[in-house]
Write a structure and sequence with these properties.
By secondary structure, this protein is an alpha/beta fold. The chain has helices at 3-13, 22-35, 54-62, 72-80, 97-105, 115-124, 162-172, 190-204, 232-250, 262-265, 298-301, 389-393; strands at 17-21, 42-47, 66-69, 88-90, 109-112, 130-135, 157-158, 176-180, 212-214, 255-258, 269-280, 285-289, 308-310, 318-324, 332-340, 347-350, 372-376, 379-384. It folds into 2 domains: 22-265, Alpha-Beta Barrel (TIM Barrel), CATH 3.20.20.10; 269-388, Beta Barrel (Lyase, Ornithine Decarboxylase, Chain A, domain 1). α4 links the parallel β3 (66-69) and β4.
């Protein structure tokens, strides 16, 4: 998208605002599909926790994607967006048996990641096919919060518990139709991914009637010019070859599944915010924007890097700025970052704002969440309205008359 397009969007819809480029999403989906064209059966299940706007879900559905969900609410969003139940896989963590049963009633595929719920579900519903999430004990990912396959992770059933798992399957006579893993996000070294895949293949040999093997995702995308990223083409070639070999050994043609989220939508997103104040201190120039970690928390939560451009003055002389928000806590987006000279009223663009950005937004400080706009075929389409004060209070109950009478003060004894 051009800077002029972004400025027009701000003029029309106000700031701050999230913008998503559908062309980039489509390109990423097709790139991943092409990389694994060497397998006969491939299924990409978009991890909708990354960006769950229903219009984005409809776009994914139109591309032929399935849907990876982690809550019953995401399942319901997927169904509302037009996904068939069998195209949705439900992969929660630490939820109740009741929620899993609720998802099963909706007809979606079930993925279970702990022995307790597996035994309970298998005992009550042995005829419902279940996928099992394995923890391969492989440390991978760009941050400890998003590395989920290591030995101390809360996710998945440990590979050391496979004998116990097999006893549960034998006793309940349940139907295991898939094996799944997810090692983490921002994976760069494909050899680490391939190593974890071998663990998954070894685990799969214990089950005779599998339909698919789900390798998770976590592919790294570039966050700035010249940044390194996962070599999808090399991974596709190597894993496809190994997957086809395994299918021959297994005696059945299985589906190779992935659940990309960030990879599909991260680079498609831009977050636009206006500079309220430029503040010079003895050593730092602060650019304070009309937003905060209530809208974009990744830099504060993960230490995530978002490239920042001054779209109002893209050719200006570069200076060093610390970009901060308006929240009444330290909410620093970038420290001493080189950005084209900033003036009050300029619009800053935060790149890679498509994944885990709006979906993690909140109403902290009683601020409104921003609108979302889809840039599609050269047009800006509003896909979520900006919140209003009515949205902020609509679920609050204004209890009448409980404070109209003076509260009687209790006299305290010395002991109290």
């Amino acid at each position: 998208m051009k800077h002029s397009d972004l400025l027009k969007i701000v003029k029309k819809f106000g700031d701050p605002v999230y913008v998503y480029d559908s062309e980039k999403i489509i390109f990423q989906f097709q790139r991943l599909t092409k990389a694994f064209s060497g397998v006969n059966k491939l299924k990409l299940n978009y991890a909708c926790k990354a960006l769950s706007n229903i219009t984005i879900l409809k776009l994914m559905n139109s591309l032929g994607s399935g849907l990876d969900t982690v809550s019953i609410q995401e399942v319901e969003l997927g169904l509302l967006a037009g996904f068939k139940p069998e195209s949705i896989i439900y992969t929660p963590n630490g939820v109740s048996l009741e929620e899993i049963e609720q998802a099963a009633k909706l007809g979606v595929r079930i993925n279970i990641d702990n022995l307790s719920i597996l035994e309970q579900f298998g005992s009550k519903h042995p005829n419902i096919p279940v996928c099992i999430r394995i923890n391969p004990h492989v440390m991978a990912g760009g941050n400890s919060n998003i590395s989920v396959g290591h030995i101390d992770s809360k996710f998945g059933i440990s590979i050391h518990q496979i004998p116990h798992l097999l006893r549960i399957v034998e006793l309940t006579k349940m139907n295991i139709n898939g094996i799944h893993m997810h090692t983490g996000s921002d994976i760069l070294d494909i050899d680490v991914f391939l190593y974890a895949s071998e663990i998954l293949f070894d685990t799969a040999k214990n089950f005779k009637n599998l339909d698919f093997i789900d390798f998770g995702s976590g592919f790294k995308v570039p966050y700035k010019d010249g940044d390194i990223e996962t070599n999808i083409e090399e991974l596709g070639k190597k894993l496809s070859t190994r997957f086809n070999e395994f299918c021959k050994e297994y005696g059945k043609e299985l589906t190779l599944a992935f659940e990309p989220g960030k990879y599909l939508v991260s680079e498609a997103g831009s977050f636009l915010a206006k500079v309220n104040v430029v503040k010079q201190t003895t050593s730092t120039v602060f650019a304070s924007i009309d937003s905060g970690f209530n809208h974009l928390i990744r830099p504060m939560l993960y230490g995530a890097y978002h490239q920042i451009e001054n779209v109002s003055n893209p050719e200006g002389r570069e200076r060093y700025y610390s970009v901060v928000g308006y929240i009444c806590e330290t909410d620093t987006f970038a420290s001493n970052r080189r950005i084209s000279e900033i003036s009050e009223g300029d619009i800053l663009c935060f790149k890679n704002a498509g994944a885990y950005c709006f979906t993690m937004a909140s109403n902290y400080n009683s601020r409104f969440r921003p609108p979302e706009v889809l840039w599609h075929n050269g047009k800006a389409i509003l896909i979520r309205e900006r919140e209003t004060f009515e949205d902020l209070i609509k679920n609050q109950v204004d209890v009448k008359n409980i404070f109209s009478q003076p509260t009687e003060k209790k006299k305290l004894t010395p002991q109290e």
